[in-house]
Amino acid sequence: MSASFLRVAVRSRPAFFAQAPVRRAAFVAPVAHKSFSTSVRRAGGEDTHADHHEESFEEFTARYEKEFDSVQDVFELQRNLNNAFAYDLVPSPTVITAALRAARRVNDYPTAVRIFEGIKAKVENQGQYDEYVKELEPLREELGVNLKESLYPEN
């Protein structure tokens, strides 16, 4: 097959393969936090008015416990987990408990295992991760959720 045949084939592609013009969304710079705190800035939703509400850690915890309690499918579970873990804090054990129960309710074992991977990535050190694992041990045993470390031990 000659190279000229390929050039003709590429030039004569149908119009529906043509690329549509790309629309670029306006870039919105993230809001820089002035100081460290235990409050969370909520984005979007019902409080998009001018006086952005600084959410306390307790309000954050209550909101996500409620969110996970109302989860009805895997998409909602994973969306809520992505949102909860997107903040610059580690969700409380009560939020993790609600998330694990939601994973069981929608029968999503892999996501339940991944919740602990998310905790491990968010905490500052191995000691904090071990505290979460220890506190959530009874629930893990009740739900039958293994840790990645026990499923795939490193040599």
UniProtKB/TrEMBL annotation:
Listed pathway(s): Energy metabolism; oxidative phosphorylation
Domain of life: Eukaryota
One cellular-component annotation, GO: respiratory chain complex IV
GO MF, any single term: metal ion binding
Pfam families with a match to the protein in the record: COX5A
Topology of the protein relative to the lipid bilayer: Peripheral membrane protein
Keyword Mitochondrion: yes
InterPro entries with a match to the protein in the record: Cyt_c_oxidase_su5A/6, Cyt_c_oxidase_su5A/6_sf
UniProt entry keywords in alphabetical sequence: Heme, Iron, Membrane, Metal-binding, Mitochondrion, Mitochondrion inner membrane, Transit peptide
GO biological process terms on file: mitochondrial electron transport, cytochrome c to oxygen
Assembly notes: Component of the cytochrome c oxidase (complex IV, CIV), a multisubunit enzyme composed of a catalytic core of 3 subunits and several supernumerary subunits.
Function comment: Component of the cytochrome c oxidase, the last enzyme in the mitochondrial electron transport chain which drives oxidative phosphorylation. The respiratory chain contains 3 multisubunit complexes succinate dehydrogenase (complex II, CII), ubiquinol-cytochrome c oxidoreductase (cytochrome b-c1 complex, complex III, CIII) and cytochrome c oxidase (complex IV, CIV), that cooperate to transfer electrons derived from NADH and succinate to molecular oxygen, creating an electrochemical gradient over the inner membrane that drives transmembrane transport and the ATP synthase.
Protein family (similarity comment): Belongs to the cytochrome c oxidase subunit 5A family.
Protein name: Cytochrome c oxidase subunit 6, mitochondrial
Organism: Aplosporella prunicola CBS 121167
Lineage, top ranks: Eukaryota, Fungi, Dikarya, Ascomycota, Pezizomycotina
